[in-house]
Amino acid sequence: MPRWQYLASFLLSRLVVLVIEVLAFLGFAKLVFGVPFRGPLWELGILCVLTSLSFSALGLLIASRAKTTEAVSGLMNLAMLPMWILSGIFFSATRFPKLIQPVVQSLPLTAAIDALRGNMLQGMGLSHLGGPMTVLAAWLVVPFLISLRIFRWR
Question: What is the phi/psi pair of residue 37, to 5°?
């Protein structure tokens, strides 16, 4: 089996779980918290798929080089912690100095948050979300291609 097929199967298997996770999460958000869905649901679905694939590619990159499960877990925490702090989950990402704003805006979690907020809360269509979608696409393609180069059968 070619490496690309093996690695792509991991990305695509994430989509099976994605449907259940997204439906449960968004259904809960709508029913319990009254979160609005102002943008088209099919576009929200595309954003969810792109986001899932982007983060799966990042995870695949990390897992492609680590030798143990514990190493993968530690490296994932190392990759995710800066995103949690900088991406605007807990407080606005615009509060960080202008000097690091390019870094903040290039993070996949920032792009995902901006795109999902834009679609769900502001009703923005995909045509207005080109910036975040480009960042997410880059985080899908680049880590996947690097994973293809560094992945080794063990």
Answer: -120, 90
Residues 29 and 115: beta-carbon distance below 8 Å: no
Find out whether 144 and 63 touch, Cβ atoms under 8 Å: no
Q: What is the mean pLDDT of each run of 10 residues along the chain (154 residues)?
A: 82 84 94 94 95 92 86 91 90 89 95 96 96 97 92 71
Q: Do residues 95 and 78 touch, judged by C-beta distance below 8 A? A: no
Structure tokens at 149: 């180069």
Q: Could you give the CA distance from residue 111 to residue 49 in angstroms, rounded to a whole number?
A: 13
3-state secondary structure of 35: coil
How far is it, in rounded angstroms, from Cα 86 to Cα 79?
12
Q: In sequence order, what are the residues at sequence separation of 6 or more whose Cβ sits closer than 8 angstroms to the Cβ of residue 87? A: 93, 104, 107, 109, 110, 113
Q: Structure tokens of 79?
A: 């990759």
